[in-house]
Amino acid sequence: QLQLQESGPGLVKPSQTLSLTCTVSGGSISDGGNYWSWIRQHPGKGLEWIGFIYDSGDTHYNPSLKSRATISTDTSKNQFSLKLTSVIAADTAVYYCARDKAKRYCTGGRCYDPPGFGFDPWGRGTLVTVSS
Amino acid sequence: SYELTQPPSVSVSPGQMARITCSGDELPRQYAYWYQQKPGQAPLLVIYKDTERPSGIPERFSGSSSGTTVTLTINGVQAEDEADYYCQSADTNATHLEVIFGGGTRLTVL
Asked: In terms of C-beta density within 10 A (0-12 exposed, 13-18 middle, 19 or more buried), how is residue B52 classed?
């Protein structure tokens, strides 16, 4: 079955770039119909969606991150990655990678593939602390 | 975008029914999803597309939808169901796609 595992530095200095990788096993990141996603959780708080990348390379991000986030895939390594620039202490969180699947629907002669099955599975999460 | 509103906490006795609500203006047009998160663990999908239950999730978990409110119901609550529960939905149009989470509900089994 599909499994995801986050990796990356646990400590990042303010103003630097946070870089995390999610390794996919039990399936191929090249398989169609998947939204490869990053979600974070501030200590003791709720879940915050960061963004995701679809098969086509299309990306969508949380507007609140103000263009600081970039998600990409590396099919040769079966991985996808998150880069978050200009980090501040408020970016301290547990970062999760997760997968959603597309659900195709067609209307007006066009077809769409939005995410539609929920985030499943999730990685175990990795704590990233932003501190000097 | 819009907000998803959940009660901060719900308490029930073992064997009773627990209902956790989630309200949002777009819920009549967007599916809702529910996640269970126990301390120190990643969230686990327990309901998708308002009412569907993933394989491996106990039958006591069910979802329903009415207007701008979706509800997660746990029948015959067990001690192991004590956790935080999050609803999730989306805000979409032709060019915009955003995922939204509710603030979470702490379920306490008395």
From this structure: middle
